[in-house]
């Protein structure tokens, strides 16, 4: 992973319906580096209407993870993200514009 100004540890832990402690493999953990400050982005997206706090966090983290992977692999000869790149960039621009307009 390249050196970036911001590094994040992402942890996904299932919530059990019965309230009992999870057995076996219970979490997914990984690190991700990014040039963007996700906390600042989340603050900007707080003005986005129609989403709960958890949905806003998922929107920021999911978008930044996917767009980061797309950026890291843009020069691959078999770029898996080639078809997704134009609509993803349009989505990100729309999200940024709505966040600015809501402020």
Structure described in brief:
By secondary structure, this protein is of the alpha+beta class. It contains three helices and two strands; from the N terminus they run E-E-H-H-H.
Explain the overall architecture.
The structure is a single chain. With 103 residues, the protein is α+β, with helices and mostly antiparallel strands. The protein has one domain: Protein of unknown function DUF3861 (Ubiquitin-like (UB roll), Roll), CATH 3.10.20.850. Helices cover 45% and strands 14% of the residues. It has a two-stranded antiparallel sheet. The model has no long low-confidence stretch (mean pLDDT 88).
Helix content: 40-55%
The secondary-structure class comes to: alpha+beta
Distance between the termini: 35 Å
Describe the global form.
globular
Low-confidence stretches: none
Topology:
Blueprint (H helix, E strand, L loop, with lengths): L5 E7 L15 E7 L3 H8 L7 H20 L12 H18 L1
Antiparallel strand pairs: 1-2
Helix pairs in contact: 1-2
Features of this protein?
103 residues, alpha+beta, two-stranded antiparallel ribbon, 2 strands, 45% helix
């Amino acid at each position: 992973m390249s050196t970036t100004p911001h590094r994040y540890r992402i942890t996904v832990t299932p919530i059990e319906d019965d309230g009992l402690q999870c057995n076996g493999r219970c979490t997914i953990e990984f690190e991700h580096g990014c040039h963007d400050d996700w906390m600042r982005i989340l603050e900007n997206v707080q003005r986005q209407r129609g989403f709960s706090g958890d949905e806003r966090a998922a929107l920021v983290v999911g978008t930044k993870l996917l767009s980061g992977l797309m950026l890291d692999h843009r020069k691959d000869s078999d770029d898996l993200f080639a078809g997704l790149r134009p609509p993803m960039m349009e989505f990100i621009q729309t999200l940024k514009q709505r966040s600015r307009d809501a402020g």
